């Protein structure tokens, strides 16, 4: 029987399957959430939640007409498919009951053919010539609430997300100071999605106080830089960076200040040169050296200071950009600096001003957070466009994007529509 692969998407997304399901290898499957349909490169359904033999797994699902299509499509050589937790096929046509991913991990295979809950000809007649519209994209908020109610709900979620962020920062102050919070936040932001936790780990191992003490002890800045670059196997032998910065490596070998080898698992596969952690550390280092002359918090606080007491959001943002100008050029892109400023600097200074009783600065930074223009889009917002398209909250303010991100993590990620319904009902009844 001939049909296009998209027909299988309807079956999986609509769960037109029997209740008791098993993999080819005999493992029991319970589909808690089938995932969000992926229109970009990679697996067909993202962020699925499955229970396989009582083990709840979060990951992606790839769907094929036949099980050997995995190899035919070269997914076994593609690391983008290493997130797959279940290979769903209409027909199993191989000997091995498992599919092998690029990282050598084996995943179970589920065959649809013997598990359909209605006559396949009826399904074919209904869907074979129809565009696929995922069930998960039919959002009850969009269908049952006015645009004003939607905006109000998303706005309130954005406020809550920012408040939770400030509470987390406040909790961190039990262990570190404001200098370290800013320092780690900047490093995390410069790591982008691939290396944000690795960069944060580096900033914790080589913390701000430690580096500042080196500077205060008259340690040559290039030696401090060499420790940042070479202590964690970030620059590997025979790499282009190793050859380019061998002079720094020699300084690292000669120093006796920090010899500990840091165990950081860098993700350097197919990373853009501009986003490479080596380049980002070089980018941030001039600012770090300058901050060591006083401290990092003072450098940041200065950009929020106005003699006349009249706060100007645009001037504050321009001063933030100016901190990273070297030879009349911004060494870090403004879009990335905006992300760091909004997610780290503004909430941190807002928290600091509250603790110090700087009421005017608290008020100004509160308003700055609410009035901040939208940041560059990320993959979460692209997913949320399927639930609540941007036109439903078309304001140019970032707080609405923060609300949609909060909505995703709280409800949409696991398709918790009933919980979401209760939340918006509470808001509308207040």
Textual characterization of the structure:
This protein has 430 residues and is α+β, with helices and mostly antiparallel strands. It folds into 3 domains: 132 residues, no CATH class; 66 residues, no CATH class; 218 residues, no CATH class. It is 50% helix and 12% strand. The strands form 2 sheets. Strands 1, 2, 3, 4, 5, 6, 7 and 8 form an 8-stranded mixed beta sheet that branches. The chain has a two-stranded antiparallel ribbon with strand order 9-10. Helix 5 packs across helix 18, helix 6 runs antiparallel to helix 7 and helix 6 runs antiparallel to helix 15. The longest helix is centred in the middle third of the chain and has 26 residues. It is flat and about 75 Å long. The mean pLDDT is 88.
SSE layout and pairing:
Blueprint: H1 5-14, E1 21-22, E2 28-33, E3 36-37, E4 45-52, E5 55-66, H2 69-72, E6 84-91, E7 98-100, E8 106-111, H3 120-127, H4 140-144, H5 147-172, H6 178-190, H7 192-205, H8 208-216, H9 221-230, H10 240-244, H11 246-254, H12 277-291, H13 296-302, H14 313-322, E9 325-326, E10 329-330, H15 334-356, H16 359-371, H17 379-387, H18 398-410, H19 417-429
Parallel strand pairs: 5-6, 6-8
Antiparallel strand pairs: 1-2, 2-4, 3-4, 4-5, 7-8, 9-10
Helix pairs in contact: 5-15, 5-18, 6-7, 6-15, 9-11, 9-12, 15-16, 17-18
How would you describe this structure in keywords?
3 domains, 430 residues, alpha+beta, eight-stranded mixed beta sheet, 10 strands, flat
Structure at a glance:
The protein has 430 residues and is α+β, with helices and mostly antiparallel strands.
